[in-house]
Amino acid sequence: MLGEENINEIKELLLKVVDKQEELLLVANEKSNYRHETNLTYIKNCISKIQTEEELKAYVNSHQYKIISEQVKLCGNVCCKYVYPYPSFTREYACNLCPFLKFEEMYL
Q1: Residues 60, 30: Cα–Cα separation, whole Å
Q2: Are 48 and 64 in contact, with CB atoms under 8 Å apart?
Q3: Which of 80, 54, 59 minimizes the C-alpha distance to 69?
Protein backbone atom coordinates (compact mmCIF):
# COMPACT_ATOMS: atom_id res chain seq x y z
CA MET A 1 0.00 0.00 0.00
CA LEU A 2 1.33 3.40 -0.97
CA GLY A 3 1.30 6.20 1.57
CA GLU A 4 0.58 9.83 0.85
CA GLU A 5 4.31 10.60 0.73
CA ASN A 6 4.93 7.92 -1.91
CA ILE A 7 2.00 9.09 -4.00
CA ASN A 8 3.31 12.66 -3.84
CA GLU A 9 6.78 11.48 -4.95
CA ILE A 10 5.29 9.65 -7.92
CA LYS A 11 3.14 12.67 -8.83
CA GLU A 12 6.20 14.92 -8.60
CA LEU A 13 8.17 12.65 -10.92
CA LEU A 14 5.30 12.46 -13.42
CA LEU A 15 4.99 16.25 -13.41
CA LYS A 16 8.74 16.62 -13.98
CA VAL A 17 8.53 14.20 -16.91
CA VAL A 18 5.70 16.21 -18.47
CA ASP A 19 7.63 19.47 -17.90
CA LYS A 20 10.64 17.95 -19.66
CA GLN A 21 8.40 16.78 -22.48
CA GLU A 22 7.07 20.32 -22.91
CA GLU A 23 10.63 21.63 -23.02
CA LEU A 24 11.70 19.08 -25.64
CA LEU A 25 8.56 19.62 -27.71
CA LEU A 26 9.45 23.31 -27.94
CA VAL A 27 12.92 22.39 -29.17
CA ALA A 28 11.46 19.87 -31.62
CA ASN A 29 8.98 22.43 -32.95
CA GLU A 30 11.77 24.95 -33.46
CA LYS A 31 14.39 22.62 -34.94
CA SER A 32 12.44 20.12 -36.99
CA ASN A 33 8.88 21.40 -37.40
CA TYR A 34 7.66 18.51 -35.25
CA ARG A 35 4.07 19.08 -34.17
CA HIS A 36 2.30 17.38 -31.31
CA GLU A 37 -1.33 18.09 -30.51
CA THR A 38 -1.51 16.61 -27.00
CA ASN A 39 -2.68 19.02 -24.34
CA LEU A 40 0.03 18.58 -21.72
CA THR A 41 -1.64 21.11 -19.42
CA TYR A 42 -4.63 18.77 -19.20
CA ILE A 43 -2.30 15.87 -18.39
CA LYS A 44 -0.62 17.92 -15.64
CA ASN A 45 -4.01 18.78 -14.17
CA CYS A 46 -4.99 15.09 -14.13
CA ILE A 47 -1.74 14.19 -12.37
CA SER A 48 -2.15 16.99 -9.82
CA LYS A 49 -5.60 15.69 -8.85
CA ILE A 50 -4.31 12.23 -7.87
CA GLN A 51 -4.65 11.75 -4.11
CA THR A 52 -5.14 8.05 -3.46
CA GLU A 53 -3.48 4.82 -4.52
CA GLU A 54 -6.65 3.85 -6.40
CA GLU A 55 -6.58 7.12 -8.35
CA LEU A 56 -2.90 6.55 -9.14
CA LYS A 57 -3.58 3.01 -10.37
CA ALA A 58 -6.44 4.29 -12.52
CA TYR A 59 -4.17 6.98 -13.95
CA VAL A 60 -1.44 4.46 -14.82
CA ASN A 61 -4.06 2.60 -16.88
CA SER A 62 -5.23 5.78 -18.62
CA HIS A 63 -4.59 7.15 -22.09
CA GLN A 64 -2.69 10.13 -20.62
CA TYR A 65 -0.17 7.81 -18.97
CA LYS A 66 0.37 6.03 -22.27
CA ILE A 67 1.09 9.40 -23.89
CA ILE A 68 3.67 10.20 -21.20
CA SER A 69 5.30 6.81 -21.70
CA GLU A 70 5.39 7.17 -25.48
CA GLN A 71 6.87 10.66 -25.39
CA VAL A 72 9.86 9.54 -23.35
CA LYS A 73 11.36 8.72 -26.76
CA LEU A 74 11.73 12.49 -27.23
CA CYS A 75 14.85 12.04 -25.16
CA GLY A 76 16.79 10.37 -27.96
CA ASN A 77 14.93 12.00 -30.83
CA VAL A 78 15.29 15.56 -29.58
CA CYS A 79 17.56 15.92 -26.57
CA CYS A 80 20.42 13.79 -27.89
CA LYS A 81 20.07 15.31 -31.35
CA TYR A 82 19.63 19.02 -30.59
CA VAL A 83 20.23 19.79 -26.91
CA TYR A 84 23.26 17.60 -26.12
CA PRO A 85 24.53 16.37 -29.50
CA TYR A 86 27.41 13.93 -29.69
CA PRO A 87 30.14 14.52 -28.66
CA SER A 88 28.97 16.39 -25.59
CA PHE A 89 30.78 16.23 -22.29
CA THR A 90 27.69 17.37 -20.43
CA ARG A 91 25.36 14.76 -21.93
CA GLU A 92 26.05 12.03 -19.37
CA TYR A 93 25.62 14.48 -16.52
CA ALA A 94 22.40 15.87 -17.98
CA CYS A 95 21.03 12.38 -18.65
CA ASN A 96 21.66 11.30 -15.08
CA LEU A 97 19.63 14.26 -13.81
CA CYS A 98 16.85 13.88 -16.36
CA PRO A 99 13.43 12.83 -15.03
CA PHE A 100 13.02 10.60 -18.10
CA LEU A 101 15.80 8.31 -16.88
CA LYS A 102 14.28 7.92 -13.43
CA PHE A 103 10.83 7.38 -14.96
CA GLU A 104 12.16 4.71 -17.31
CA GLU A 105 14.03 2.96 -14.51
CA MET A 106 11.03 2.91 -12.22
CA TYR A 107 8.05 2.46 -14.50
CA LEU A 108 8.96 1.25 -17.98
Answers
A1: 31
A2: no
A3: 59
Count Cβ neighbours within 10 Å for each residue of 44-72 and write b for 16 or more, e otherwise.
Answer: bebbeebeeeeebeebbeeebbebbeebb
Q: At what angle do helices 4-32 and 53-60 cross, to 10 degrees?
A: 30
- Name the amino acid, one letter, at 12: E
* Per-residue pLDDT, 51: 94
| pTM of structure | 0.85
DSSP notation for 3-34: -HHHHHHHHHHHHHHHHHHHHHHHHHHHHH--
The predicted-structure confidence for 23-75, as pLDDT tens digits, reads as follows 888 888 877 766 666 778 999 999 999 999 999 999 999 998 988 888 887 88
As a whole number of angstroms, the longest Cα–Cα distance in the chain is: 44
For residue 46, give the amino acid letter.
C
